[in-house]
Amino acid sequence: MAIKLIVIGAAGRMGRRILSLAAESGQFDIIAAIDKQGHPDIGKTFSLESSSGPIEVVLTDTYPTAVADAVIDFSQPEAVDETIDYCIENDVALISGTTGLSEQQRDKMKAASAQIPVIYGTNMSVGMNVLFALVGKAASMLGDEYDIEIVEQHHRFKKDAPSGSALTLAENICRATGRDLSESLVHGRTGKDAQRQKGEIGMHAIRAGDITGVHSVIFGTLGETVTLNHTANSRDTFVRGALRAAEWLVGKKPASYSMADVLGIKT
């Protein structure tokens, strides 16, 4: 039976691809495509190709009365609270990839998992989640003599910096090496006395053109450099991960899950 799906942020770049690939998969029944009030495309009809033929979905700014199985949210932070409230009130599984959330919103997402199954992931591609698992292990194995720098690249339209994925990389490194994230992270460098300090993690954000997403973690010491890198060639890699997460999550008991759980990655 097809999963009844609501897509939040449906008019955005990610949202449109979620609609398209969900329809193509034949595993989902799209019951609502939602974006913020006042969006110029509200009322517009999206024509999608499904396994059973063409379907049409109208973009709206309100939640449907029909019962949903899952919500996939790739919107903006200002929309997240309403999405969480809707999912709790209607007992709907939530898959969210919205980055730039406040600490309060992260706490609210975690609290929601006591009532509904939740997956929150800063990046839902399979390859990136493998990188998430690898960086902490690499940092532990290489040791304190290796300097760590994170460089993330995205398109000119991305609002938050550093990216959620870059922060997840830093968090995983800190967790594995006993560092405090707030004390270790240094955002860029400038000035005549900007020499790196031992133990810090450099974070650098690049915004240019239509770069989909590139994340590099550089481990360097005197004599050698080790670089772990992930390049997203298409947004579809994130979309397929999110759809895979939705199929996995529906029917699970209330809890906070991760893409590592979906993919069976042991950290």
Task: Provide an overview of this structure.
With 267 residues, the chain is of the alpha/beta class. It folds into two domains: 3-124 and 235-263, 3-Layer(aba) Sandwich (Rossmann fold), CATH 3.40.50.720; 126-231, 2-Layer Sandwich (Dihydrodipicolinate Reductase, domain 2). It is 34% helix and 28% strand. The chain has eight helices and 13 strands. Strands 3-4-2-1-5-6-7-13 form an eight-stranded mixed sheet, sandwiched between helices. The protein has a five-stranded mixed sheet with strand order 9-10-8-11-12. Strand 3 (45-50) and strand 4 form a beta hairpin. Helix 1 crosses helix 7 (236-249), helix 2 packs parallel to helix 3 and helix 4 packs parallel to helix 5 (164-177). It is elongated. The mean pLDDT is 94.
Summarize it:
It is built from eight helices and 13 strands. With 267 residues, it is α/β, with parallel strands linked by helices.
What order do the helices and strands come in, and which of them pair?
Blueprint lengths: L2 E6 L4 H13 L2 E7 L10 E6 L2 E8 L9 E4 L3 H14 L2 E4 L6 H10 L4 E4 L5 H17 L4 E8 L9 H14 L3 H4 E3 L13 E7 L6 E8 L2 E8 L4 H14 L5 E3 L1 H5 L4
Parallel strand pairs: 1-2, 1-5, 2-4, 5-6, 6-7, 7-13, 8-10, 9-10
Antiparallel strand pairs: 3-4, 8-11, 11-12
Helix pairs in contact: 1-7, 2-3, 4-5
Mean pLDDT score: 94
What proportion of the residues is helical, as a percent range?
Answer: 25-40%
Termini separation = 33 Å
What is the ordering of alpha helices and beta strands?
EHEEEEHEHEHEHHEEEEHEH
Q: What best-fitting shape do the alpha-carbon axes yield?
A: elongated
**Structural class of the secondary elements?**
alpha/beta
Could you say what the CATH topology of the largest domain is called?
Rossmann fold
CATH class of the largest domain: Alpha Beta
The CATH homologous superfamily of the largest domain is called NAD(P)-binding Rossmann-like Domain
Unreliable spans? none
Per DSSP E runs of 2 or more residues, the count of β-strands stands at 13
Give the second-level CATH assignment, the architecture of the largest domain.
Answer: 3-Layer(aba) Sandwich
Number of helices: 8
Q: Tally the structural domains.
A: 2
Q: Compute the gyration radius: what is it? A: 20 Å
Task: Give the biggest sheet.
Answer: 8 strands, mixed
What percentage of amino acids are in beta strands?
A: 25-35%
Question: Strands across the major sheet, in which order?
Answer: 3-4-2-1-5-6-7-13
